[in-house]
Design goal:
Length: about 240
C-alpha cells in the first residue's frame, strides 16, 4: 500500500475468499520486504503520487525493484493504477500525464485480440465497466509487453508485461466507498479541470454491482494463477 486511502478493497477480499493469505505492507509506514523469497506473488496498489516521485516517496524505488524481482522469478504480479505505472517504468517503459485529461467515473474497457486470449484477462468481457480516477497513463510499453485493453480515448488500460505479470490502469479493487475517499476532498473545492466530481461519484454508485460482477472473476483468476505457480515451484 502506498497510502491509507488506497487499500486492497474488493480485490483483497476476493483473493482471501479464493484461499490466498495477504500480507498487506503499508510502505509509507514501514520498510518493504527486502525480497520475495517467502511470497507466492505480488500485488502493487494505487496512490496519489507519481511513478517518478522516488525523491519524495523513497519506497517507490524498492517497489520497482520488487516488481523486477517478481518478473525475473516469474512470480505472479499485478499492478493497479500506480502499481501498473511503476511496473511500466521499472521494466523500461514510460509514464506521462494523460493528454486527454483527468480520467474519472466509469468507462468501458476495450479488449484487444491479445486481451481476449490472455491467461488472466480471458475471464473479462469486452466493454466491461472500469472505474477511473487518475491523471497519468503509460505512454510507452516496456520491451516485450503486450497491450490487452484500452480506454475509449485509446489510453493504455491493461498490459501483460511478461509471463505472469500484468498491470491495469483502472481500479478493479474499488467501489463507491473507496472512490468516496478519493473525491471527498474535492467536493466543495476546486476539482481537476473539467471534472464534475459529484457526477463521477454518482456514476460509480450507479454501476457498483456491475463493477463487482466484472472484476471478481479477474481476482479469482489471479488467485488461481498464483496457486498453480506456487505448486509448480514446489514440484
Amino acid at each position: 500500500m502506498h497510502e491509507e486511502d488506497c487499500p486492497p478493497g474488493w480485490f483483497g477480499s476476493w483473493l482471501t475468499e479464493a484461499g490466498m493469505t495477504l500480507d498487506v505492507c503499508p510502505a509509507y509506514r514501514r520498510p518493504l520486504p527486502p525480497d520475495l523469497q517467502t511470497y507466492d506473488g505480488l500485488l502493487v496498489l494505487g496512490g496519489d503520487m507519481g511513478a517518478y516521485d522516488d525523491a519524495t516517496h523513497p519506497w517507490l524505488t524498492m517497489t520497482k525493484a520488487l516488481i523486477r524481482d517478481a518478473v525475473a522469478q516469474r512470480l505472479p504480479f499485478l499492478g493497479i493504477c500506480l502499481g501498473h505505472q511503476l511496473a511500466a517504468v521499472a521494466l523500461g517503459g514510460s509514464v506521462e500525464v494523460n493528454a486527454h485529461g483527468h480520467a474519472r467515473g466509469i468507462t468501458p474497457l476495450g479488449l484487444t485480440s491479445a486481451g481476449i486470449e490472455d491467461e488472466l484477462f480471458h475471464v473479462t468481457i469486452d466493454e466491461a465497466p472500469a472505474l477511473q480516477w487518475n491523471h497519468d497513463v503509460v505512454t510507452t510499453l516496456p520491451p516485450g509487453a503486450t497491450l490487452l485493453a484500452t480506454d475509449p480515448d485509446l489510453s493504455v488500460q491493461a498490459v501483460n508485461f511478461a509471463p505472469r505479470a500484468w498491470g491495469v490502469q483502472f481500479h478493479p479493487e474499488a467501489g463507491s466507498d473507496i472512490f468516496a475517499r478519493w473525491v471527498r476532498e474535492r467536493l466543495g473545492h476546486a476539482p481537476p479541470a473539467r471534472v464534475d466530481v459529484a457526477a463521477a461519484y454518482a456514476e460509480v454508485r450507479k454501476h457498483e454491482r456491475d463493477l463487482e460482477r466484472a472484476w471478481k472473476p479477474l481476482a479469482e483468476r489471479f488467485a488461481a494463477i498464483t496457486a498453480d505457480a506456487a505448486v509448480a515451484r514446489v514440484a
